[in-house]
Amino acid sequence: MGKKRSLTGDRPTGKLHIGHYFGSLQSRVKMQEDENLERFVMIADVQALTDNFNNPQKVRDNVYEVLKDYLSVGIDPNKTTIFLQSMIPEIAELTVFYSNLVTVARLQRNPTVKTEIAQKKELFGESVTYGFLGYPVSQAADITAFGGELVPVGEDQEPLIEQCREIVRKFNNIYGETLKEPEVVLSSNKRIKGLDGNEKMGKSLGNAIYLSDSDEEITKKVMGALTDPGRIKKDDLGNPNICMVAYYHNLFSKDEVKKVCEECKAGKRGCVACKKQLIENIIKELTPIREKRKYYEERPEELRKILIEGTKKAQVEARKTMERVKRSMKLDY
Length: 333
Ligand code: TRP
Known about the structure:
Blueprint: E1 4-10, H1 18-31, E2 37-43, H2 45-50, H3 56-73, E3 80-84, H4 89-98, H5 104-109, H6 111-119, H7 121-124, H8 130-133, H9 135-144, E4 150-153, H10 158-175, E5 183-186, H11 215-223, H12 244-252, H13 257-265, H14 271-297, H15 300-328
Parallel strand pairs: 1-2, 2-3, 4-5
Helix pairs in contact: 3-14, 4-9, 9-10, 11-14, 12-14
């Protein structure tokens, strides 16, 4: 029968970093080889507003930053439909319908939402907004609006997909078989740690290397990365297991990592030399990506065209889903 659909996306709240690159971007590029798949990637600007409602300019600016990151790593608009969430009104409409099928208590129990609310005390104070608490409902609309059956995401998103599955089951139970239940496709790579050893990489933590960073920025960041704190002089025997430079050599220096770690353990290679080599390898990997980014940076009208054309394709699909949903719900006046 027909092709399967995959649907995934990102909140445009900042440029994408090497954690995204190894975590999800590479696997999205790889998925483009699968001819039995129709791929959708959403720039989730409406979801970004749920925790940035007071900063719409930031969201708007980052829509184009994320788009440039996508294109520069090789997400190909001819193979993947890249579109903008806010231009698909059906998503908002579906969200309203689905909101009857979810209890407030269930949303409050969602582990991802719970963690995020705890992290966003400064924004939300003692009481979280209705919109943020409800973003899993909107994410269920994102997925089902396009008949997404496969959702390639990181582990942190699993509770959101589970919530979507529950909504789909409930919808189909009440209104008749209409929607497809999605499944998670976990990317094989684990979450990439920050330069400081933090489990999470992010802008607010200042421990990320961005795909768009300059040579100088990369150099400065790697020079400041956490190394074995017990190793003071070059001759000291190092422990690569507790060194972030070794950790990143694993990602960027496939051919050399073994030698680098041997020399570190034997006290034969100093941290500075080790960092310099890593810097060189990161720059080597990111140079073609940055060049592609530059191409698009110089062609804003081309960027806009890609986004609008992808969104038009997505609109057609969302309208079809909406028609079926309204028929099932007896709203087909
Ligand atoms: N919640 C996702 C994130 O923060 C972004 C997202 C929005 C998404 N809608 C989606 C992911 C639909 C997968 C499917 O990264």
